[in-house]
């Protein structure tokens, strides 16, 4: 049933849309990320949505007086960002021309993000509570920059659009009841969206390691970072139901990439 629904919804969606956008948004780099991506919405649409969300977050932070309250911390992040952004052309030459920005929000949250178009947001809690080194900050920032370079948000929106359109069409064509349609949605979530999100996270880990190495930050710090995150999380959801790889899996995958990225780091340090 799951296989039938998945095949039907994707075929019906793409047939209805009359287009298929399968491409890779970045070069492969040294780590070899070369997955074809389904992109049904334009980058302009995603940038518009992202800009609206970004401005709302900044406005709220200003109103609450929690935006950029620590000048020294902000300058620290900007220095790290400048070095990382200097390497993005390895994956996307156009990204060097993005309007990059860096902001901090005073909060205990263990969170950071880079929105499409290069808008970097760090919550102070992730730096202060984990007592991060510059290399560990670079690991987080490089990971989040990688999401933006790969246009993962655009890809997720495209997949969600295709899935929801397909489920609606399947419900109409096959006469599915509301309960059956909801079941199809759950199957799509677990069978498509969540594993795909784990793939995106792994890609961001790989590209992030290369970016930080080329910028002269020790990739080994990504290991210590996730060890800190693992201790801070104190219990993780089952990997099958998580959009992020388990920390132990993530650490193992990154350790396996060290022979590829450490020479880049050593070259940058020279």
Description of the structure:
- This protein is mainly α.
- The chain has a single domain (40-269), classed as Collagenase (Catalytic Domain), CATH 3.40.390.
- It has helices at residues 2-17, 43-63, 71-85, 124-129, 134-149, 152-174, 178-214, 220-233, 247-269, and strands at 22-23, 37-38, 101-105, 112-115, 119-123.
- The strands form two sheets. The protein has a three-stranded mixed beta sheet with strand order 3-5-4, sandwiched between helices. It has a two-stranded antiparallel sheet with strand order 1-2.
- Helix 6 (152-174) runs antiparallel to helix 7, helix 7 (178-214) runs parallel beside helix 9 (247-269) and helix 8 (220-233) runs antiparallel to helix 9 (247-269).
- The radius of gyration is 20 Å and the shape is globular.
- It starts with a helix and ends with a helix.
- Mean pLDDT is 80; it is low at 1-20 and 186-196.
Distance between the termini: 57 Å
The average pLDDT is 80
Category from helices, strands and their pairing: mainly alpha
Return the domain count.
Answer: 1
Shape: globular
The fold-level CATH name is Collagenase (Catalytic Domain)
Instruction: Tell me the radius of gyration.
Output: 20 Å
User: Unreliable runs, pLDDT <50, ≥5 residues?
Assistant: 1-20, 186-196
Helix content: 55-70%
Could you say what the CATH architecture is? Answer: 3-Layer(aba) Sandwich
Concise structural overview:
The chain is mainly alpha-helical. It has helices spanning 2-17, 43-63, 71-85, 124-129, 134-149, 152-174, 178-214, 220-233, 247-269; strands at residues 22-23, 37-38, 101-105, 112-115, 119-123.
